Amino acid sequence: MNPLTMFAEQWMMAMRPWIQGWSAFAPNAWPQPGTNPFATAANAAPTVSVKIVSTRPVEVTANLYPGLDQAGLVCDALSDDAVTAAPIEPPEIIRDSGGVRISVKVADKQPAGQYRGLIRRRADGNVAGDLVVIVT
Question: Which of 10, 48, 54, 82 lies at a 20 to 30 A Cα distance from 38?
Fold first, then answer.
């Protein structure tokens, strides 16, 4: 990947709404929701690999929105639904070729439960998905 690739991807993401808006008026236009005008196949959710650092059994589910710009993703601290336990520190999200890598560290004394956090775009804070960690 060279530096121009990141610029080109941002440009394509910026142009997508404009192209979809204009193509909506064309006869036999492309399907609009979630389409990538620069690819031959419909968008799929990005590939996600998860690294878990824990001595306890942990299950992680990452849900990222399809067609999202994968550059600059961050995650909120993971808190349980009852907000009784200390939150799990925010996971690290790194863009990788073809997807993202998420690294979750769960402390040995973390109480069992289900913890959630929103994945956001660093640039504007918009929600790009969520992360669920179940500690047993």
Answer: 48
In this structure, the answer to whether residues 31 and 81 fall within a common structural domain is: no
Domain count, the chain: 2
Nearest to 102 by CA among 124, 132, 127: 132
Tell me the residue length of the chain. 136
Sorting pLDDT into bands at 50, 70 and 90, what band is 25?
Answer: low
DSSP string, 13-39: HHHHHHHHHHHTTSTTPPP-TT--TTS
**Same domain flag for 111 and 57:** yes
The 10s digit of each residue's pLDDT in 43-81 is 566 778 888 999 989 999 888 887 676 778 999 999 987
Alpha-helical runs (H) found in 1-123: 3-23
Distances (CA, A) of 54 to 39, 59, 130: 39, 11, 20
- Domain residues for the domain of 98 are 47-135
Q: What is the pLDDT of residue 34?
A: 53
